[in-house]
């Protein structure tokens, strides 16, 4: 049995038992025969459709038929309304392609406007640079000085401006301002040229090509002593211009090296520390070119540099200059001619807190030991052996290799030094009676004993030095056994070297 409950008519019971039974059961009315089959089907459809028949208060056929017509009309009207809404929505909704094209057009307009703004800015900046270059050629000295100051300021940070100024022709009038007698104009033009050459090789070459180097030297060699600010500006320009390889021979042969040496020497103590450092760096740049070595050796630069070693701020750069000079025979001769040159260089090998200085000093000593036999004895007398052994233990990899090469070069000199005492002790053995042969045999025995004694002394000395080295390195005292020292010193060939 299926039951259908409605709020206003009680309970509706569809009984599938015997249809002949007409009695009422529990207050329920049997209405099986009261409705037709079509009415029941419609009634059930409305009931299942979420209470579609709940608005009917009486169960009559005409009620259901009227409900049917109402539902049909309402459904039809709802379809018409939905279609109208869809049509209106389609009309009101914009076309996506049109929206995209509008956005693209907006972006293009924005980009074009930005490009226009940047173009206008560049045009304005270019006009300003043109005006400055035009004022550099003015007859009014005040305008020229102010224009040079503007070039100095604008070219200091902007590399593009440096190239633009050069293309507009700013370099020749700036160089021409060096002929003026006004110190302020000279300084402005010098620093403007300095900034134009920063990071721009074409500008550096152009500055030298128009004769700036000779004009700068003319200011220095004038009868009246140049202003210290002008001298420092010239030193800074020589530093910047000498960085270009094509400018090195021009500056070196122009007479700039003596001026740079005087600035570095600074006997009157009027030069600033910055100017000294710039002069030292400029001399390093010039020493790279081999033909400039002869101009450097015409001054007393080599003795000055060797005697200045010890100041940790400049020692590494000094050793770099000497490393360039030692590549030529004249440079090696000049270095070895300086008194105490080898003790100074050997002492640098012990600067464990400055690996760069150790590497450069070992390079200088290696070249000199390899090229000049007479310098080897001076190195040995300066105590280089113990310093090299220490360097091979505590130095950098490059310093260790160079120390090994120096020991290889010194090995022959060490053996000759050991046998040197043998040579002069046989004057009493020269006999004319034919007994010279016996005397020579005795002398050989004596020489062999002396040689052995000297070797033993050398071994003991090396052992003591190595113990000191181990102690300085804070290593265990038994780090290297004594037998190792004996094997290291028993032969004077390079086979005994660890590298």
Automatic annotation (TrEMBL):
Q: What is this protein called?
A: U-box domain-containing protein 4-like
Bias regions of kind Low complexity — which residues?
A: 64-77
What the entry lists under PANTHER family is as follows: ARM REPEAT SUPERFAMILY PROTEIN
- What are the UniProt keywords, alphabetically? Coiled coil, Repeat
Q: To which species is this protein native? A: Senna tora
Tell me which InterPro entries the record gives: ARM-like, ARM-type_fold, Armadillo
Residue ranges of the region described as Disordered: 51-99
Annotated coiled-coil segments of the chain: 108-139
Bias (Polar residues): 84-98
């Amino acid at each position: 049995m299926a039951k259908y409950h409605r709020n206003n008519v009680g309970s509706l019971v569809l009984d599938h038992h015997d249809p002949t039974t007409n009695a009422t059961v529990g207050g329920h009315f049997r209405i099986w025969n009261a409705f037709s089959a079509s009415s029941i089907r419609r009634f059930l459809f409305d009931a299942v459709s979420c209470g579609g028949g709940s608005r009917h208060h009486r169960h009559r056929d005409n009620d259901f038929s009227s409900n049917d017509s109402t539902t049909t009309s309402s459904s039809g009207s709802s379809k018409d309304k939905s279609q109208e809404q869809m049509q209106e929505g389609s009309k009101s909704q914009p076309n996506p392609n049109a929206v995209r094209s509008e956005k693209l057009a907006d972006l293009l307009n924005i980009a074009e406007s930005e490009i226009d703004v940047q173009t206008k800015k560049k045009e304005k900046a270019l006009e300003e640079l043109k005006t400055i270059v035009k004022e550099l050629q003015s007859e009014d000295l005040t305008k020229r000085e102010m224009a040079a100051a503007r070039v100095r300021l604008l070219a200091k940070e902007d590399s593009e401006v440096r190239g633009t100024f050069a293309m507009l022709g700013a370099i020749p009038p700036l160089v021409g301002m060096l002929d003026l007698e006004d110190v302020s104009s000279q300084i402005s033009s010098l620093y403007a040229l300095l900034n134009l050459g920063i990071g721009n090789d074409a500008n550096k070459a152009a500055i030298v090509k128009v004769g700036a180097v000779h004009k700068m030297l003319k200011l220095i060699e004038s009868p009246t002593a140049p202003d210290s600010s002008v001298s420092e500006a010239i030193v800074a320009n020589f530093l910047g211009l000498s960085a270009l390889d094509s400018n090195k021979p021009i500056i070196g042969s122009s007479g700039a090296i003596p001026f740079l040496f005087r600035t570095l020497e600074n006997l009157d103590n009027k030069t600033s520390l910055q100017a000294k450092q710039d002069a030292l760096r400029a001399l390093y740049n010039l020493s790279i070119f081999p033909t400039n070595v002869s101009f450097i050796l015409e001054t007393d630069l080599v003795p000055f540099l060797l005697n200045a070693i010890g100041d940790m701020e400049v020692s590494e750069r000094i050793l770099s200059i000497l490393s360039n000079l030692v590549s030529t025979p004249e440079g090696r001769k000049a270095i070895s001619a300086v008194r105490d040159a080898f003790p100074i260089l050997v002492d640098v090998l012990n600067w464990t807190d400055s690996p760069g200085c150790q590497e450069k000093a070992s390079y200088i000593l290696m070249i000199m030991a390899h090229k000049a036999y007479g310098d080897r004895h001076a190195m040995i007398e300066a105590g280089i052996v113990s310093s090299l052994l220490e360097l091979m233990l505590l130095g950098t990899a490059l310093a260790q290799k160079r120390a090994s090469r120096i020991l290889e070069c010194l090995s022959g000199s060490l053996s000759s030094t050991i046998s040197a005492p043998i040579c002069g002790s046989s004057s009493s053995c020269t006999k004319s009676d034919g007994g010279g042969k016996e005397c020579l045999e005795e002398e050989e025995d004596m020489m062999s004993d002396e040689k052995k004694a000297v070797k033993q002394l050398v071994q003991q000395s090396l052992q003591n030095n190595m113990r000191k080295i181990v102690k300085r390195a804070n290593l265990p005292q038994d780090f290297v056994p004594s037998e190792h020292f004996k094997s290291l010193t028993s032969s004077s060939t390079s086979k005994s070297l660890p590298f």
